[in-house]
Amino acid sequence: MLATRARALIDGRIAPSIDDVVALATPILKHRMALTFSARADGETVEGVVADLLKRLK
User: Fold this and answer.
1) Residue 6 lies in a domain
2) Which helix (H) or strand (E) segment is 46 a member of?
3) Rounded CA gap, 19 and 43, in Å?
4) Count of domains in the chain?
5) Which residues lie below 8 Å from residue 35, measured CB to CB, with a gap of 6+?
6) How far is residue 38's CA from residue 50's CA, in Å, rounded to a whole number?
7) Residue 12: inside a domain, yes or no?
């Protein structure tokens, strides 16, 4: 949330929007998530999981 607020302020807005969340989700979550062995064996990637979550926001 701090990163989305900072991005909004840099763009001259008071409050963050969904666009801020979408723009920052992958870089922020990429290093915080870990896939199970079976997910990795199935070819899943962290970026793919985040992309699937972001599809639900739009």
Assistant:
1) no
2) helix 46-57
3) 28
4) 1
5) 44, 45, 46, 49
6) 17
7) no
- Residue 23: partners with Cβ closer than 8 Å, 6 or more residues away: 7
Range of the domain at 34: 18-57
Pull the structure tokens for residue 31.
Answer: 């290093």
pLDDT per residue as tens, the chain (58 positions): 999 999 999 999 999 999 999 999 999 999 899 999 999 999 999 999 999 999 998 7
pLDDT at 31: 87
Contact (Cβ atoms closer than 8 angstroms) between residue 43 and residue 54: no
Look at residue 35 in the predicted model and tell me its pLDDT.
94
Nearest to 7 by CA among 48, 52, 18: 18
The verdict on residue 26 lying in a domain is: yes
Q: Report yes or no on 9 lying in a domain.
A: no
